[in-house]
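Lab notes, practical 5.
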Amino acid sequence: MTRRTPTGAAVLQPEITRSITEAVLNELAEQGFARMSMEAVAKRAGVGKSALYRRWPSKQEMAMAVISEFSVSRAISVDTGSLRGDLRETLDALLEWLTHPRFSRILPDLIAETARNPELAEVVATMIGIPRRDRGTELLQRAITRGELAADLPTELALDIIPATLYWRLSVRATPLEPGELDTLTDMLLRALGAKPAAAQPH
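Output from the prediction step:
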């Protein structure tokens, strides 16, 4: 017997999901979270509102799912073999995230919204903040294992320090980096974290 392909809510076509995701990012960048509507996203994506509601029950859940996927996927945890290499790769990824043409406009608006909306702030922390910080914790733990950082490193404070300069420069001051400043920042972070040369590995 030939099986019928399920229809309706049972099918979430990937190409439609991608179109909606792009529409959400564009609407957030142009209108901001408060002014974004399901109707506008559906119109921009060329779909009916039902296509959105089959995926997410509300505007907030739709927006946060899209922002989370965009943001967490850019939080790398590459083991280069040294803390300096790991930090440099992390700063490159942070720079790309914070200067993305759309996200550079979305992030300040999102932070402003979380200041007014405690529920949204909790969702942002859970879906974006915690997963990104988990990647950072992996970086620090590798450095501790290699003997580059002290075992009693205040991890939470270190996780705040690493992205702070780039966020302040790019998102708050809106001032671009000069050539070579990421290398300078990497060296400053190593000193701030109290880094030591990696311990020699046994042969």
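Observations recorded by the TA: DSSP finds nine helices and no strands in the chain. Residues 1-10 have pLDDT under 50 and may be disordered.
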